Amino acid sequence: MEIWTFGSMLRSERPRDLDVLIIYSCREDVAGIRKMGFWELSLPPVEIIAMTRDEESHYDFIKITNARRLIPA
Asked: Using one digit for the tens of pLDDT, what is the confidence trace for 32-69?
């Protein structure tokens, strides 16, 4: 699993939200992270997008959004 960030979090000291991209190979891992729900009350809010490696490649999401990898570093 890879965790990336993008959006206003990278451009502002006071972002509107925290945009997170999860690239996964096992759907259950993403379901487990979503069930934790710790971000539901966070301020600024956390917005999660989950994609497989193939989906990310198809949309070229990382390049288009200038995302930065958080995990693994």
From this structure: 777 776 666 677 888 889 999 999 999 999 999 999 99
Which of these, 10, 37, 33, 35, lies nearest to 22 by C-alpha position?
33
DSSP single-letter state for residue 45:
P
Assess whether pLDDT exceeds 80 at residue 28.
yes
Residue 31 has pLDDT above 70, yes or no: yes
- CA-to-CA separations, 18 to 1, 6, 9, 26, 35, in angstroms, rounded: 19, 8, 6, 23, 18
d(CA 64, CA 57): 11
Q: Any alpha helices (H) in the chain, and if so which ranges?
A: 8-11, 27-36, 53-59, 61-65
